[in-house]
Amino acid sequence: MSEKVLLRFEDVSADLTDISQYVADGGYESTRKAIAELSPEEVLAEVKDSGLRGRGGAGFPTGLKWSFVPKDTGKPIYLLCNADESEPGTFKDRAIIEKDPHQLLEGIIIASYAIGCHDAYIYIRGEFADGYDILCKAVAQAQREGYIGDRLFGTDYSLNVHIHRGAGAYICGEETGLIESLEGKRAYPRIKPPFPAVQGLFGCPTIVNNVETLACVKHVIAKGASWFKAIGPEGGPGPKLFCLSGHVRRPGVYEAPMGTGLRTLINDYAGGMLEGRTLKAVIPGGSSVPILRAEETDIAMDFDSVAAAGSMLGSAGVIVMDDSTCMVHALRAISHFYHHESCGQCTPCREGTGWLDHIVTRVDLGDGTDDDLARLDSVAGGMLGNTICVLADAAAMPVQSFLSKFRDEFAAHVHDGGCALKDGRRAVA
Amino acid sequence: MPKVTINGRELDVPAGTNLITAAEMADQEIPHYCYHPGLSVAGNCRMCLVEIKALSDKQNNPLPKLQIGCNTLVQEGMVVESDNPRVKEARRSVLEFLLINHPIDCPICDQAGECKLQEYYMDYGRYESRFSLGDKVHKHKVEPVGPSIMLDQERCILCTRCVRFLDEVTETHELTITERGDHSELTLAGGASVDNPYAANIVDICPVGALTNRDFRFQARVWYLDSADSICTGCATGCNIEVSSRRGSIYRLKPRANLDVNGFWMCDHGRTTHESNNAENRLQTSLVREGGQFVDVAASAAARRAAFGLKTVTSLGIVAGAGATLEEGFLAAKIQDLLGAGPRIVTSPATSDVPDDKMLISTDRFPNRRGLKALGYEEATSIDKPVDALLVLRADPVAAGGAWVEQLESLRATVVVSDRADETTGFADQVLAIGSHFECEGTFVNRDGRVQKFDAAVAPPATAVAGWQALADLLAALGGPAYDSQESILASLLDDLRDPSLVSASPSVAD
User: Fold this and answer.
1) Domain that holds residue A282
2) Are residues A58 and A204 located together in one domain of the fold?
3) Which of A396, A387, A394 is nearest to A192 (CA)?
């Protein structure tokens, strides 16, 4: 295992939430270097060259996204840090925020400098009460020490960082829903175009980046693009946080190079399956992505490899299920979640998520029919790709993949009124 | 002008046009609920999904996802398909989603017959129901949201047209969406009531039966209603309207879209103007004096009696209300010219206690002041020159006060041409009963100088005739030229208009 950067707090005895200990550990040196020694164009070039792809789920190249910000519009440019981590199975940003918030602030300052932003916002999930307090303290410390504020490091560059707490809706993590919420409105995702880089917060050019992405920016500047590129595959390199949950011995968040094997993560990092259990299935990238059967899990965990296997790296929320899991019941938990979280703006998602939830629940309880199974597939098909944001896809993809990969179990629920995996129910839902 | 191809048909479309409008230009329909040309694009109903086979001449790969026609603007070389199997399937699917939680209470819904759910279901749906009734989400059904509007939350498809109207047009923000997912509901924002001067427009733009007009609820099935194009008489703006009637009774007024006059809207006051059409004082028949008392006579007999009384008059004054049509004002002036010069005045006050607003409401509560002035009528509250006789046209000067009573009593002849009995008709020698403007065809000139024709929606009561008909009869009985239609009068009078700034009517557009 290589040296940890994102989870450095695990390797050092210092309390990295305390700015003096963080600085003593070399903290804010990258920020000083970026602002005092490099031009914004040089920072952008370095990030582009690093090949960093967004860690929020979509994997869009970060440097390319930054380059979409139009110059000379006369409007302010905003950076929004998306800390609304809400995808079931995902808890990596929380670790950064709670244990090493200053590396995030460094990433925010460096990114803001690169895109010409003077007011950055952190939109933090409402349930992260501790994280909010820790971030507030960190921002206050950074202001006091002169890392945030006017004329940073003796240059003309100034930056304010604001923290905004969400109120507990999954949709606020969708970048345009987040923008609407930050503006004080219902978090209805926006139709695109226009994209946020052109017309985002308050109608101004806006870049929205995930917590882990911005933390990576700090390390790209600290250690250089060539260091970053050397970790993992060419098409999406860098250190990566993986969230392992479910039926493993040591669930938790782990840092490993992008492209680490899924089985390595399960067996070596998370300690393998629980005693006496065998692997049945894995959702590799948060609850919204297609599930993989055990025999499909011999893959590398990077954007392109997981896509090639028919799923997505997503937020790298790896949900591991063993042979005690009732897949119908597991899907019911997922379908219920998306039903509960659909914002209700677009017809297919508003109506479809509830319909899916009703049918899956019915099948799980043994009241379903063969027609219900066919209906599940076609209702999900009517949602996929037909809405403003991808919440409909997030609800539809698990249904279609669970159904196609575990057809026998769904059929058993329909024909026999249930399945033998009663214990599995409690374990997942 | 970008050249686009829609369902195989190539056409030039102005830059900035969206695909729904471009398709209309190609005689193709892209069905839609949330899109309305008078409001911002919401893109939420997903009914207008189309396939983009090529985005432009520079980027001619098909887009992987279907795109919404409302938010997609034409580009040079764009190729669009709105009727292929993939699009039809997505559309059928959206319709099915819209209907699963809909109550399908069409038999008791006022929107039935002009409901976009019904129309599109027949055009694009027609599937077997796959949703179990027990799964339906139930919401409030009879919710008054303002003095004139009733809300049925179950029927609402959450297109937000009404919310956007109240946010963007009136900027009064009374309605909002609360809750989320399939429990989302349209509701009043924090104790508000939809009670603004344009509130009822949200009933018109509601594509389903969620918002209904409390006046019109359960009054008529829309497929029994006859329709006529008219002009609102509520003020000088001249909003283009549609009059719905059945068996001679008027049930409702709705705006017709005209971007040069009223956009897509009309005010709530304008919608109530038909109520006076059934007033108790409506004249059913013409009247002449027999031994001091009024007796009913046929319209032609009244015209002959009036002509007899006016024949020896050498100075006739005309007192017109600004609700008289161009045709009526013109014929009255012809009668005056035949007898000898005299004053022509408009007595209707030009201002009222209703102030001009920035939208459609004018402080001038009359529809044709500008037209009558173009015919040489002057604004005055009295006639100061000596006259032998008066022709009173759709005006009630006595009610306005002043010295009218003494003047009328001193005259040799007074002819009143009116659709209702009022204080002035009591001083008439003859009363020519005419139809209201809902009962006549005619032409008004609005405050901006736009010349706008309207049709009759219903017939005049009993033996009353159109205003132009009554005056044409009188003119002919006095030996003047004969006119046998509103069109022929309009054709003659256009040359007489003394206002070079008048503009011809612009056509109404689809909405």
Assistant:
1) 239-322
2) yes
3) A387
Average pLDDT, chain A: 95
What confidence score (pLDDT) does residue B507 get? 65
Closest CA to B318 of B401, B417, B436, B410: B417
Specify the length of chain B in residues: 511
Residue A172 contacts B, CB cutoff 8 Å: no
Per the structure, how many domains does chain A have? Answer: 3
Handedness of CA A143, A147, A153, A156 (dihedral sign): negative
Residue pairs spanning A and B at CB distance below 8 A: 92
**With an 8 Å Cβ cutoff, are B43 and A169 in contact?**
no
CA angle B85, B91, B92 (to 5 degrees): 85
Are A72 and A58 within one domain?
Answer: yes
This prediction has a pTM of 0.94
Q: Are residues B135 and A355, on separate chains, in Cβ contact within 8 Å? A: yes
DSSP one-letter code for A291:
P
| pLDDT at residue A412 greater than cutoff 50 | yes
Type of residue numbered B507:
P
pLDDT the model gives residue B63: 94
Same domain, A51 and A110: yes
* A311 in reach of chain B (CB within 8 A): no
Q: How far apart are CA A328 and CA A387, in angstroms?
A: 26
Residues A46 and A95 in one domain: yes
Nearest CA in chain A to B102: A351
A348 closest CB neighbour out of B94, B130, B137: B94
State the pLDDT at residue B128.
85
Task: Give domain B130-224's CATH architecture.
Answer: 2-Layer Sandwich (3.30)
B56 to chain A, any CB pair closer than 8 A? The answer is: no
What does pLDDT average to in each consecutive run of 10 residues of chain B (511 residues)? 95 97 96 98 98 94 95 96 96 96 94 96 88 88 95 97 98 96 95 95 98 94 97 98 96 96 97 94 96 95 96 94 97 94 94 95 98 96 92 96 90 96 96 98 96 97 96 97 96 85 70 52
**A363 touches B at CB < 8 Å:** no
Are the CB atoms for B380 and B253 separated by under 8 Å? Answer: no
Q: Cβ-count burial of A35 within 10 angstroms (0-12 exposed, 13-18 middle, 19+ buried)?
A: buried
